Structures are given as C-alpha cells and as structure tokens.
Amino acid sequence: MRGHAFSKFIPNELPKGGFEELLKLFLELLNYTSGDANEALDWMNELDKQYKLTSDDYGMGDFIEDLKKKGYLGDDDQNPKGFKITSKTEQSIRQSALEEIFGKLKKSGRGGHNTNISGLGEEKNADRREYQFGDSLDQIDMTASIHNAQVSHGIGDFSMTERDLEVEEKDYKTITSTVLMIDISHSMILYGEDRITPAKKVAMALAELIRTKYPKDTLDIVVFGNDAWPITLKELPYLQVGPYHTNTYAGLELAVDMLRRRKTHNKQIFMITDGKPTCLKEGTKYYKNSIGLDRKVVNKTLGMAAQCKRLGIPITTFMIARDPYLQQFVRQFTEINGGKAFYSSLKGLGEYIFEDYIKNRRRTIR
Fold first, then answer.
1. N-terminal to C-terminal alpha carbon distance within the chain
2. For a Cys staple, 252 with which of 68, 176, 304, 327, CB 3.0–4.6 Å?
3. Across-strand partners of 210?
4. Cα–Cα–Cα angle for 212, 217, 223, nearest 5°?
5. pLDDT tens string 158-187
6. Beta strands at 279-282 and 285-288: parallel, antiparallel or unpaired
7. DSSP code, position 363
C-alpha cells in the first residue's frame, strides 16, 4: 500500500501576498485592535518583517496606498500622521465575519431556512388544498384550478366554481425582533483569553445576515457592564472591554424596553456573557460583589428572567465559561425564563448563535 510522501516545509517558498490576501489579514487584525487602523498596520509591519508577507514588487507601502485609493483608509484628523478606517472598511469587516461564520454553518449542514408551518410567505411548498375565504389571489394555482374545472364540468360548457380553485401552500415566514446582549465587563479579557473579539465578530456577522437575508427582521445590540446602553452597528468594530462589573439586570431591563417598542410578535434575547451578575444600580450608587453568587444581585436578575417569560420573550444564554457554580446559576436562570442555554467555547460561538437564530425564525414565539 502506497503512503504519502512529505517534503520539508520552507516558509520562504510561500506565495507572496497581493492586495486581496493582505486585505483579509488587515480586516482580521482590525477586530483585535478595536478598529485602530494604525495599530493594525503596525502589527502587519511586524508580521511582514518576521514572515515576509510582501514581495519586492509589492510592499507594505504599496498596500497602504491601495487601501487609500480603494476607499478603505482615510486621514485621521486627530493624528496627522495616522489613518482611520472608513464606512467601507466597517462593512467589509461585517461581511468578512459573516463569510467566516456562515460558511462554517453551511459546511456543517446546519441552519436550514425552511419552516414547517404553512401560512403567508414567499417560498412555495408541495402542499395543496381547496380555496378558503381569506386566501390571497397569488396563492391560487390557476393551471391546477382550470384542470379541476375541466374535470368537474367538462370542456364543452366550461365553468369554474369556488370548489375548483386550488391553493398552493407557502412556508410561513416569521418576522423576528432580536436583541443581542454583549458582556463588556473586565472578565471578558481576563486570564489571557480574549472573549470580546469573538463576541463582536458574532454580532457583526449576525447583523449582516439579517440585513442581507432577513431584511424585515430587526437586531438591536446592547452592551452591559456596570450599566447598560445600546450601541449602533457602526460602533461595533470599536467596542472595548471596560473596568466594569456585570450588571446583567440592567442589560435585560434595557433589552426588554427596546423589544416592547417593536411591533412584531416574535421577540427574543441572545446574551453573550462569561460570568455571573455582580452589580446592581441603586439610585445613583452601585452595589457590587464579585465573591460567589450574591443573593441580592442574583434574585433581582432571576426576577427579570421571570418577567421576560411573562412577556413571551425567551432568553438564549451563551455562557463562555465552564465553572460548575456559574453553570448552576445559568440553569436556574434558564429554567425560570423557559429559554435555552449553551455552554459554548469561543471557537463555536458563532455557529451556535446562527443556528439558534435561524431555528427560532421557524416558529411563532408566544
């Protein structure tokens, strides 16, 4: 039996990067530098010195000039010698995140978009039935209806009645309002593990998925530390962790308030966090306790989970931690809300969220 022949790996024989290859690396680095173009370019220069990313014919200076010409970089008014990314770059970061996460989703066979409920929609299915009062005219299969009339009444004296009309069923399409909550407490970068960058990439990819494939759906983004506040899609690449505790209650309270304003029936919350709630705001002061599970903070948070259940808003928690006592809290939180929980690694976070988002669109959430 013939095996595989291996040759010596020589890094210098790797093909030199052109603009498109270097652009992919630049967009990826921008996720880690929170949108700081100058820092990303410094990193690329260091990588070029070490790994010879460019060639004699196309160097880093040429790459920067092309970035400016193609509209990816602009001059930074606050730093005359520096650059800032443009709206075109921000959109490219979102598209890159979508391709990375959704590409894996398709390869793994997850995330079918079909629903199993018939109703008003755009995608036809194989089901047929008689016409009923209230059906729209575009649902009527005229070819099949004429055939039914010919069979029932003959060709010589052609006539068509309501009973001859045949309706094509279409897959029910739900319109969903989602709030994505992102924990930006200090623990999201503790212990040498960057958890905020994957969370940002997931948010950007999900937003791009909704914008391109489900334009009638809505996505709001909430970040929470000591307080909670909404951010726009444009702010996502620049999002950073702060010296905060985790006020999960404030994040949920804001998310519920935003969903109440949406007129859709289907509403849901996705929450990405790596820890337990440790903070509450009481008037103008903060109550903080990072030791164990503080019952005062936990009970307040669990109360908000119960309120979401009464409002018909399921919460899907993506816990980026595997500590047993944290998982115990998440299980209690999920049971009270009637939602779901995933104890996800950073590597599979995007696939989990995409799969769950698409799955939730298949049903009417009450």
1. 61
2. 304
3. none
4. 95
5. 788 888 888 876 655 568 899 999 999 998
6. antiparallel
7. S
Does some domain include residue 287? yes
Q: Each residue of 150-159: b (16+ CB within 10 Å) or e?
A: eeeeeeeeee
C-alpha R_g of the chain: 26
- Assigned token pair, 69: 């010409």
CA distances from 258 to 19, 201, 222, 264, 360 (A): 42, 22, 10, 12, 19
pTM: 0.73
Domain-embedded: residue 181? yes
Interatomic CA distance for residues 130 and 121, integer angstroms: 18
HSE (side-chain half, CA atoms, 13 Å) at 91: 7
Rounded CA-CA distance 185/202 in Å is 17
Structural domain of residue 247, as residue ranges? 176-360
pLDDT tens for 2-20 read 555 556 545 554 445 789 9
Residue 185 to residue 196: CA distance in whole angstroms: 9
Q: How far is CA 87 from CA 70, 72, 298, in A?
A: 12, 8, 40
Tokens matching residue 285? 């002061």
Nearest to 202 by CA among 24, 62, 21, 355: 355
In a domain, 41, yes or no: yes
Are residues 140 and 71 both part of a single domain? no
